[in-house]
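Sharing a chain and its predicted structure for anyone who wants a worked example. Both blocks are below, sequence first, tokens second.
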Amino acid sequence: MTHPAVMALDEALGPLGSDRGAGVDAILRRVIGEGDTAQNVDVTVRAQVRPRPGNTQDLSGGAPLTVYDVVLSPTQILAAQWPGGHPPALPPLDPPAWLPRMTDVLIFLGNTHNVTAAGPVSAGNEIVRINLVVEG
């Protein structure tokens, strides 16, 4: 059974592919392998994305770098069994393989953003929310 906090977050973010709720559709991507064997493993998620006030910097060439706070639900990640192919984590020391990492990227509104911090929020023994900080 889904935790009530996850159900409330899913309701607030809205369903995939809709304009309802506080979320936008985004792609969470992990690159598996290196060089010619590298493969993107994607999952479409709903994300609440908010730019951090005062955290936009101009990179060389005038391209802005903006820092965003992002909230994800575990629902779509778990349903897709993303990223697949990993043995289960050994609680309580190893984080689950499906949690976003600092090597992952989040793509939303046509732009790719690097995950710079990821933190799960738990209720009891269940992860009910994922907080990310992304830049790009």
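Comments welcome. The mean pLDDT is 89.
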